[in-house]
UniProtKB/TrEMBL annotation, chains A, C:
<dbReference type="InterPro" id="IPR046373">
    <property type="entry name" value="Acyl-CoA_Oxase/DH_mid-dom_sf"/>
</dbReference>
<dbReference type="GO" id="GO:0050660">
    <property type="term" value="F:flavin adenine dinucleotide binding"/>
</dbReference>
<feature type="domain" description="Acyl-CoA dehydrogenase/oxidase N-terminal">
    <location>
        <begin position="7"/>
        <end position="119"/>
    </location>
</feature>
<dbReference type="Pfam" id="PF02771">
    <property type="entry name" value="Acyl-CoA_dh_N"/>
</dbReference>
<dbReference type="GO" id="GO:0003995">
    <property type="term" value="F:acyl-CoA dehydrogenase activity"/>
</dbReference>
<keyword id="KW-0285">Flavoprotein</keyword>
<keyword id="KW-0274">FAD</keyword>
<dbReference type="Pfam" id="PF00441">
    <property type="entry name" value="Acyl-CoA_dh_1"/>
</dbReference>
<dbReference type="InterPro" id="IPR037069">
    <property type="entry name" value="AcylCoA_DH/ox_N_sf"/>
</dbReference>
Automatic annotation (TrEMBL), chains B, D:
<keyword id="KW-0285">Flavoprotein</keyword>
<comment type="similarity">
    <text>Belongs to the acyl-CoA dehydrogenase family.</text>
</comment>
<dbReference type="InterPro" id="IPR013786">
    <property type="entry name" value="AcylCoA_DH/ox_N"/>
</dbReference>
<dbReference type="Pfam" id="PF00441">
    <property type="entry name" value="Acyl-CoA_dh_1"/>
</dbReference>
<feature type="domain" description="Acyl-CoA dehydrogenase/oxidase C-terminal">
    <location>
        <begin position="231"/>
        <end position="380"/>
    </location>
</feature>
<keyword id="KW-0274">FAD</keyword>
<dbReference type="InterPro" id="IPR009100">
    <property type="entry name" value="AcylCoA_DH/oxidase_NM_dom_sf"/>
</dbReference>
<dbReference type="GO" id="GO:0050660">
    <property type="term" value="F:flavin adenine dinucleotide binding"/>
</dbReference>
<dbReference type="InterPro" id="IPR009075">
    <property type="entry name" value="AcylCo_DH/oxidase_C"/>
</dbReference>
Length: 388, 383, 388, 383
């Protein structure tokens, strides 16, 4: 058992941190970037590709680097620390993860290689208005010319319906769409060229970008074997994305605790610095406690991925999701409150971080959602075991 | 002790309810009830409708449009407005500078400003906080120096809410830098069209523009725009902050928001955990409302009552909690917060995240919750 | 609308407070009393009878005083302030309330007169091991000689089963017992002479007394018309008792906030009094906020009784029950914490008050119980109206 | 990073689990697991079983019975004990005075006391706190004055846990009243059978007798019972308080208590609100346990890690929360807390209220949670 990074992981963290520090030296740089059309920095994206960061999760055979979850988690934490708006989670972890999980060897080699090199951007369209973190598509329906039960022949697939929110959907070249298969055969995953769908981009509260995507007989290519129910794989990739999102939230919280501590030390009121006021320093202590608890759970859930058991990963996703949701809300709210008015402003990172935490949370599964799932399982075990 | 309103008060409440729900334009009320953004024109229009009926500034002296109501009547007036979605009369006018001018102003100032203030012909802004004088207001540095009959003002104010619409601004300025910091402050009224006044927007984390910085560079202010005593500004500030007992906590609006949320929640209300959160909040709001009623019902009594700090502290916490529940109910749909109006996501869900973020201010502005706790522990508990 | 006491109510409060102040001048006096066999002060009980306090809730025709809920609430608050162990809630409000609600005119005149004069003590036996605040008896069963459906003739009733906890049961002369009627006819209420049952007295955590009562063919007299289902009345009397219990809890909390404030002002650590530490004074402020919110809800619920509507009273009982449960736990826990070690000791009132708050809560309906009931009703209304 | 235990550590854990569940008497373990009261004889018996196997004081120096384990092994040892319901070796002996004597004591003191301390042949009590020196320990006033080779001790200690069983007491006493308060303190070991030592029980709100006042009236203490330097007691106190990194938070015992509670809850577990409280607590406990593991896993790393204050603060909060849940599940049955054993109410339900009340101490004794927050904000955050 070991909760420390090895030398290579340390080096990765330093490298990513260095790159991001040059791109987002301060919050103004982030403000400039999110005000741009794309909402993220394509040059930085290119440098991430060059460093191999975009290919981290994918096998070398598919043009990736073949790194493990700990490495991906490190990247997400660093992105969170500077509130980087790059669609790493959406494009690489989530959409790329779907391709890697269910794509045919040819599809994987084609798409993941181009994704890793920064040549194409993907986005996962798995949520429709009114749906809530479900691996069963209901807002987008797939249709096929010809009979699904006859195995042979070239069949043409089309999609109809609306996916929204599609994180990173505005910039995506190819959409990875979950859709209900005909005749109740479950949920399939399809590739749709962005030009074949009606994409309307918008910004979320943290100014990262999402999109509303309308499919209207849009031509689609099944990912993997056509017509199979892929909801189990869809759920697992959502769980992995949840865990990586928790890594990103951890990075945000680390920055918020540091910024708040620094502020209390430097800001003067009534002729003294704020750290003179015990009611405030005690609250900073409680923020730190939440941060450390979240940190422990994030490390644990990230390591649980390596075990590879789907149920265990789902459990880990719920547990870290609940923890990060609770801790994130606590830390995010207190960070603003302890900063006072300045924490409310868009020019200050701390309040925007609070927005970012909520966007990650509501996108990937919020506290009540995870609590509900965990509640259903409390009678399945005697104790929750930290170590197997 | 009795719970029923007297027949007169019940009749009063009905009259308010009737007026608010029939005479204030439906579109304005819907905007409020649905949590959408009010335009400044809507705020002005609504206040003028109220003022025409004598309902904009009932707590002012009768000769300036006040109504000589009991505290309970003011409470009912205030609750019914919130319940009906009527915008509360602009606080800077109705609750802040109006009562100050009525109490401290010269006869000339009263005649010049009070009718226009009640009718929102003048939109007032507040110039109190500064970058280094927030909770510690007395450290303010904006200076006013005598030059003949005029004052020359230099400095910077911040957190000026809705200052972009302001015609005039009431400011606390340092008129004597030599004395103890509270003792050298005066209140000046400043025409915001004066040369040297500049208003710069501050963007907030919800993307909205509701607060501003206001810069003064050699702004000349005629001497007759000093309110009250020279160097008596701190007294006015304390009067102003201690003035409010009614309507401190946004009870009615929060109740209304929670009721709307229940409707929006739809099938999610079948979840026992959601129901429990709603039930808990409804109970908390009831306790808060009853506490507000105890405050107004007690006002003739000599006994100490839970002061406005309790209402402010708890009221803003609950307002924030309701917004958290809304956000959790909105879920992924809340991500579409800056989507256009043709978004397929429901409006309430799209507004959930900005509202949640915006309401973080509730426990900061107008005396942070830390200040409220300090008032409670010092003033009420004697600690 | 008026939240103030009139002159008579003020006078009542002063009188009760004065009497209790002489009986329980300090916490030592309470300790001595609860260490006695009865666990309460019979002399004080006699003085309460003389002052008319025991007869407050009952009509003059029945030998009582015919006062309203506000007056009874005042008495309960004052009892709470000094943690008085006298079984006023159990004997007068609850058991007496049952007799007043369902007894025949003769039974009422007989029992309530003797109760008001202090001549007999009653106790309500409405809870069995495993039951939780239910008006439907399940642990005690009533049997009758002869057929229940034939209306005429003298029939002999007996009870079997266990009631526990029976608050005040050890000292009671007559037990007022809820029992399941034969053949699923619902729940009836019976009078049982204490000598006809097996009564084992014990102390609760706050050292007030309860008992376990075993009925083994115990002779019983139906209260009111024999054989009728009285569960609605039983529920209403429980609701009234809940509201009066909330008054008592309010008194406890008032004392705890005052004691804590005094302690912070007088106790020195690190050479200064504790009120120098902002983290502590802010927590005292939060205790005060909880106290005032509870106070408002207690006054409201007490006034709601006068309206007389059963459903409204049940709703008020749930609302004040939830509030007092939450506030009581907060205030009780913080009172001990802010006192430090001394708050843990039996010789200090503040920790015993915390025990008393929990006993009242678990006896009369705890927070989760009331929350569950309120949760079931959230869709029945748009807004909760404070004023009708 | 990896989650699996190394084969050696996994084997170590199995060995501990095997020993604890087979060699420590079942009745003692059941008493712990069911939350009943342990007798002093049971505590002694259990520790002697452990000591015979070398498992009572593994963190002591090897020559005095220690095991030279890694922090992780100590953690596993500690968790497995709690999980199996094995009483943790008496803290006053194993964690407090033992390490102090091993570190600061003379060879003579070591030989005289350490074996007997490990085997609980001597039951140690702690004499630190005084009525006016709790969190502010340095203000202690119990004095020791030289008289020939002896010290004469006068004063009062309080909150002496289990002092009624004590054979010896290790005390902090003032040996120099003239200097800065921390500088005049020494540690003395005192035989509690000495003339002039009086132990008086303090009754707690749960009705139990677990703490005491200890009075010293002209108690003569031989000079060779001074530990460490004269006036060096504050150094020892800091050593003692900073000594513990493992086992600060009662994770294993709280997890076990929650698991037992799920069994006791029976049909109440069908209530979604109960399930949610359990799920929330299980998650909180997992996060705490993982944090404890991070602390032990990090100890070879130079990086600052969340110190024991986080574990203590959160651990006691969770311990208290589990007891609140137990009380709410017990409901009316909890009223029978002082009923005799033939009560028809279930044992766990009868113990719920006393346990809830007793555990209020967890956030007070041994460095209150306020002290822990202060350590975090000062030491870790630099505030």
């Amino acid at each position: 058992m070991d909760f420390t990074y090895d030398d290579e992981q340390q080096a990765l963290r330093e490298a990513v941190r260095g790159l991001l520090a040059s791109a987002y030296a301060d919050h103004d740089a982030r403000r400039t970037t999110v005000a741009s059309d794309d909402g993220f920095d394509r040059a930085l994206w290119g440098r991430l590709a060059e460093m191999g960061i975009l290919g981290l999760p994918f096998s070398e055979a598919d043009g990736g680097v073949g790194a493990g979850p700990v490495e991906i988690g490190i990247v997400c934490q660093e992105l969170g620390r500077v509130l980087a708006p790059e669609p790493y989670l959406a494009c690489v972890v989530h959409a790329g993860g779907l391709v890697a999980a269910v794509g045919s060897p040819e599809q994987k080699a084609d798409l993941l290689g181009r994704l890793s090199s920064g040549e194409v951007l993907l986005a996962a369209a798995d949520t429709s208005p009114g749906s809530r973190w479900s691996s069963h598509a209901d807002g987008v329906r797939a249709s096929v010319s010809g009979d699904l039960s006859t195995g042979s022949g070239q069949r043409a697939w089309t999609l109809d319906g609306v996916a929204d929110p599609v994180m990173g959907g505005g910039a995506a070249d190819i959409l990875v769409v979950t859709a209900a298969l005909p005749d109740g055969h479950g949920t399939g995953v399809f590739l749709v060229d962005a030009s074949a769908a009606g994409v309307t981009a918008y910004a979320a509260a943290d100014l990262t970008r999402a999109a509303s995507v309308r499919f209207d007989g849009s031509a689609a290519t099944p990912l993997g074997q056509p017509g199979r129910d892929l909801s189990a794989s869809i759920a697992t990739i959502s769980d992995l994305t949840r865990i990586m999102g928790a890594n990103q939230s951890l990075g945000v919280m680390q920055s918020q605790v540091r910024a708040t501590t620094d502020y209390l030390k430097s800001r003067k009121q009534f002729g003294v610095t704020l750290n003179t006021f015990q009611a405030l320093t005690f609250r900073a202590a409680d923020m730190y406690v939440e941060l450390e608890l979240a940190h422990s759970m994030v490390d644990w859930a990230t390591m649980m991925i390596a075990g590879g058991d789907r149920e265990a990963v789902a459990d880990a996703a719920d547990r870290v999701g609940l923890q990060v949701s609770r801790s994130g809300r606590h830390v995010g709210q207190e960070a603003i409150q302890l900063h006072g008015g300045i924490g409310m402003t868009a020019e200050y990172a701390v309040g925007v971080g609070t927005a970012h935490l909520e966007v990650l949370d509501q996108w990937l599964g919020n506290g009540p959602h995870h609590l509900r799932r965990l509640s259903e399982r409390v009678t399945d075990h005697d104790l929750v075991e930290a170590l197997s | 002790m009795q719970l029923e309103l007297s027949p007169a008060d019940a009749e009063f409440r009905n009259r308010m309810r009737e007026f608010f729900t029939t005479k204030v334009p439906q579109e304005i009320r819907d905007t409020v009830l649905e949590g959408r953004h009010l335009s400044s024109d809507q705020i002005v229009e609504s206040q003028r409708v109220l003022n025409a009926e004598g309902l904009a500034v009932p707590h002012w002296p009768v000769e300036w449009g006040g109504q000589d109501w009991t505290d309970l009547q003011r409470h009912l007036w205030h609750e019914e407005m919130q319940r009906a979605g009527v915008p509360i009369p602009l606080a800077f006018n109705a609750s802040m500078i109006g009562p100050v001018i009525a109490h401290f102003g010269t006869q000339e100032q009263k005649e010049r400003f009070l009718p226009a203030t009640a009718n929102l012909d003048i939109w007032w802004s507040q110039g109190f906080s500064e970058p280094d004088a927030g909770s510690d207001l007395a450290s303010l540095r904006t200076s006013a120096v005598r030059d003949g009959d005029d004052w020359v003002v230099n400095g910077q104010k911040t957190w000026t809410t809705l200052g972009q619409h302001g015609d005039w601004i009431f400011t606390l300025v340092r008129t004597d830098p030599e004395v103890k910091k509270q003792a050298g402050i005066s209140m000046l009224l400043i025409d915001m069209t004066s040369p040297g006044v500049e208003v710069r927007p501050i963007e907030l984390i919800d993307g909205g523009h509701e607060v501003n910085e206001v810069w003064f560079s050699d702004v000349r202010v005629p001497g007759d725009l000093l309110v009250g005593e020279l160097n008596g500004g701190w007294t006015i500030a304390k009067f102003l902050l201690g003035n409010e007992r009614v309507g401190v906590a946004p009870v009615g609006a929060t109740k209304r928001a929670l009721a709307t949320l229940k409707t929006n929640a739809a099938a999610q209300l079948e979840d026992p955990l959601v129901r429990a959160r709603v039930a808990e909040l409804e109970n908390d709001l009831l306790a808060l409302e009853l506490t507000a009623l105890r405050v107004v019902a007690h006002s003739s009594d000599g006994e100490p009552h839970p002061a406005s700090s309790v209402l402010k502290l708890r009221g803003t916490e609950l307002q924030q909690s309701v917004s958290e529940l809304a956000l959790d109910l909105a879920g992924p749909a809340s991500l579409a917060s800056r989507a256009e109006d043709d978004s397929p996501q429901e409006g309430w869900a799209r507004r959930a995240a900005p509202t949640y973020l915006n309401l973080r201010k509730a426990s900061i502005y107008g005396g942070s919750n830390e200040i409220q706790r300090q008032i409670i522990s010092r003033t009420i508990l004697g600690l």
